[in-house]
Amino acid sequence: MSFKLVIGNKNYSSWSLRAWLFLTESGLPFEEIRLPLFTDAWQQISQYTPAKRVPVLLDGDIRVWDSSAIWGYVRSQHPSAVGWPSQPQAQATARSIAAEMHSGFLGIREQLPQNIRARIPLERSALAPATQQEIDRVEQMWTAAYGTYGGPWLFGDFSLADVAYAPVALRFVTYQIDLLPGAQPFVKAVQALASIQAWASAAAAESEVLDFIDQLHTPRERV
Fold this sequence. Notes:
This protein is α+β, with helices and mostly antiparallel strands. It has 2 domains: about 5-75, 3-Layer(aba) Sandwich (Glutaredoxin); about 90-205, Up-down Bundle (Glutathione S-transferase Yfyf (Class Pi), Chain A, domain 2), CATH 1.20.1050.10.
């Protein structure tokens, strides 16, 4: 039996993207159940998870929610799925930065929410100091990873660290954040993925609009 994956809007739901990208790049078949946020359809989420959040993986009668839990569960069933680097130091760093993403970067999440189909150029100086510091940290991680492991992904081969940070790269594209040259290769690698291009095309075709995201930045904040 193939998996089912419950997701939110492709345009807005970054955690949905992580689970979807993981399954897609792992080559595992799954059925997609899309519940657009803040719509009547969203009310169905309670039948899939008590947390009432996406993504949710359905495997028969088994329910798994939270992206990192989904990664772990799927890999326990399919060890060949996208995983961690095999070299101990690379794996330790990859796990650490993925966990850092999972639990942190609240400024980026709040001020640069996922909005894949939009293009809203922002100066970094228009963001809160804490958000600017978070962007600095992301640049530092990406630049160090490419400097150490040489690409084409953060730790050489595509891994869960890349899954964790792919939505961040797309946020930087949306808001046209000017990054250091050493961090740019990751953004370009994410944009070049066929799976990401398919997700972005689907996001552009969605009809739902969340005004509190689309109208987050006022004209005077744009450049």
